[in-house]
Write a structure and sequence with these properties.
Distance between the termini: 67 Å
Number of strands: 10
Number of helices: 3
CATH architecture of the largest domain: Beta Barrel
Radius of gyration: 28 Å
Largest sheet: 8 strands, mixed, barrel
CATH topology of the largest domain: Sortase, Chain: A
Structural class: alpha+beta
CATH superfamily of the largest domain: Sortase
Order of helices and strands: HHEEEEEEEEHEE
Strand order of the largest sheet: 1-2-3-4-9-10-6-5
Length: 298
């Protein structure tokens, strides 16, 4: 063969060799990425890897739901500051029409439920036993009776114990008092809420103290108890600017800057506890910004 351009021939041979190797490598990767049936060469669907921590949390939810049908989920700070089960009674009557067994603060069984709401069911009643509980757990940690899980603002309440019946400062929402000090924020800023179908992740955005008496100068601007910020479900009207006004108001009251900025597009989780040693309606309020939703598979 008379080849007048040996360099061109060499280049062609090299290109063909590279293409051949590349094809083999792609075929190899295809098998590694998605295995096939060796007889039919049909791709086989592979089950996704299950995160053992997510499965553990899902197992906790399922176990607690068996204890009490009113169980909503598990609330915990990543730091371990708080780890509490959350329940919710939508009314003083169960879905089957039966009156709940619940108690006054003094321990008397409520027989006439007139004037009570679902929030009164678990405030002095322990969710695991259905019995009056003032000292051991301070009733239960509970979600507002009006809340649906897709609401703009979920509200969860828990008791704050005095030093006389909680020397270790670990019961219910008592540990939230640590977040009154800026030096404790960084360690305790992330919170997880485990629900039936998903895990929601939050960051503490605002910490403030609030006098909830109607005479308070901030009473109208800081209504953290709204499930939808722009709608007052007590008075039954909309105010399309309320959410932004609320953010401005609580920012002005915050005990320190967290760096987690709230906007009117955010969904929030509000934690409320009383502040022991004060008279009247003085509360510690934490407003948490939702940052992630992790759905359960299957």
């Amino acid at each position: 063969m008379n080849n007048k351009n040996p360099n061109k021939f060499t280049v062609i041979v090299i290109v063909l060799l590279v293409l051949s190797l590349a094809g083999s490598w792609v075929y190899f990767l295809k098998d590694k990425i998605r295995p096939s049936d060796p007889e039919t060469d049909t791709p086989i669907d592979v089950e996704p890897t299950i995160d053992p921590e997510i499965e553990r949390l899902r197992g906790i939810w399922q176990e607690n739901k068996q204890i009490n049908e009113d169980y909503v989920g598990e609330l915990f700070f990543d730091s371990g500051l708080i780890s509490e089960s959350v329940v919710q009674a939508k009314d003083v009557y169960k879905p089957n029409g039966e009156l709940y067994q619940f108690y006054t603060q003094g321990g008397s069984l409520v027989k006439d439920p007139t004037g009570y709401t679902g929030n009164d069911v678990y405030i002095w009643t322990y969710w695991k036993t259905g019995e009056y509980d003032y000292n051991d757990h301070g009733g239960s940690v509970f979600m507002d009776y009006r809340n649906e899980l897709d609401d703009e603002n979920l509200i969860i309440y828990g008791h704050h114990f005095s030093v006389w019946n909680d020397e270790e400062r670990i019961k219910a929402f008592t540990p939230l008092e640590k977040l009154l000090e800026a030096e404790n924020y960084e360690e305790n800023r992330f919170v997880t809420l485990v629900l039936e179908k998903e895990i929601r992740r939050y960051v503490v955005a605002v910490v403030y103290e609030f006098d909830a008496t109607p005479e308070s100068p901030h009473y109208n601007d800081c209504q953290y108890w709204r499930t939808e910020y722009n709608y007052d479900d007590y008075l039954g009207y909309y105010d399309e600017k309320y959410y932004q006004n609320y953010i401005n108001a609580i920012t002005s009251l915050q005990l320190y800057s967290t760096g987690a900025r709230l906007t009117t597009s955010d969904k929030t989780l509000t934690l409320q506890t009383c502040i022991s040693g004060h008279t009247g309606e003085l509360f510690e309020i934490l407003v948490l910004k939702q940052i992630e939703v992790i759905p359960f598979e299957g």
